[in-house]
Amino acid sequence: MNKTRKKTWIQLAYLFPLMLLAAVSGCTTNQRSADEAVLKAIVVTEPVRYDSDDPALWLHPTDRSKSLILGTDKDEDGAIFVFDVNGKILHEKTVSGLKRPNNVDVEYGLSLAGGLVDIAVTTERLTNKLRVYRLPDMKPIDNGGIEVFEGQAQRDPMGISLYKRPKDGVVYAVVSRKEGPTSGGYLWQYRLEDDGKGNVRGIKVREFGLWSGKKEIEAIAVDDELGYVYYSDEQFGVRKYYADPDRPEGNLELARFATTGFAGDHEGISIYTINDGTGYILVSDQQANKFQIFTREGEQGNPHSHKLVKIVTVSAVDSDGSEITSAVIDSRFPSGLFVVMSTDRTYHYYSWDDIAGKDLVRAPNGVR
């Protein structure tokens, strides 16, 4: 046997046990069986540089086709990438040089400098700050950032969701961190307001939120209209509280759901709203590449009973961040757009019609 052939057989002998182990171990949770229906993305974005994480949506007020999708690139040399509805990166709007931006959210109509501005806010984990940007130009309006969890040993901000209180238009940020107390106060809430010089400052207004201690709390979503905040207590379930910090019972946990049937981490939460107060809460079953869908409005007489109504498998892999709107975007998304992070450094866009199928309701006219 010549030396080249002998070397080839040695390599095969070395690789065979590894190949056999892979075959015997079967499909992982990130693989799909041949007969499993997988929801295909209509659009897959251009990739970010390092590590795609959490997305957010900004709806253009007059032309929805000009709406923006924001996505964090989680790295010490990170960024907020801005995409159009076709998944193309808008480099002139993308914000770079951020220190591990984790999650991002959008809110409309913050009172600032005598007018109303739409904002995007991200958690900058390595600086323990919130960073605030004006939409749609992504200009910073935070005077260098807003410190969070000051005076705490456990800071590292991760999750964020913005809440605009319907009765007075005050905007709040609900922020979680990498670690926190189990007995309450894992999340802190900040009122966002004008600092008197046209920049945004944050005033802490409450601490709330139980934690199981199992993993961490990252995914947060606020239902502005109904006034609730939801967050994923990873590997435990979803917890629900009032969003208004001035409610006397605001620190009372209202519900726990999605506590069974998940392969691993409970992650990204998105709320599909319908104009009559109904809709759906979508929760990422991260390691299974699925989203479990629960009723938004609960049951008659019990608004805190959220029933599982459908599970969908998506082509995005290992998703821990998502966002959804029931607004009409264009002919591809006539009943809403669902944006999902994927670990291949991209974001996937899905049509609500494809998610709903024949099982779930569609918003008749779309909402903002």
Short key terms for the protein model shown above:
8% helix; single chain; five-stranded antiparallel sheet; 2 helices; disordered N terminus; Neuraminidase; 368 residues; four-stranded antiparallel sheet; mainly beta
Low-confidence stretches: 1-35
Q: Mean pLDDT across all residues, rounded? A: 91
Q: Biggest sheet: strands, sense, closure?
A: 5 strands, antiparallel
Q: What overall form do the CA principal axes indicate?
A: globular
Task: Kindly identify the CATH topology.
Answer: Neuraminidase
CATH C-level class: Mainly Beta
Q: What is the number of helical segments per DSSP (H or I, 4+ residues)? A: 2
Report on the architecture of this protein:
This protein is mainly beta. Strands 6, 7, 8, 9 and 10 form a five-stranded antiparallel beta sheet that branches. It has a four-stranded antiparallel beta sheet with strand order 1-25-24-23. The protein is 8% helix and 42% strand. The radius of gyration is 22 Å and the shape is globular.
Quick summary:
This protein is mostly beta strands. 8% of the residues lie in helices and 42% in strands.
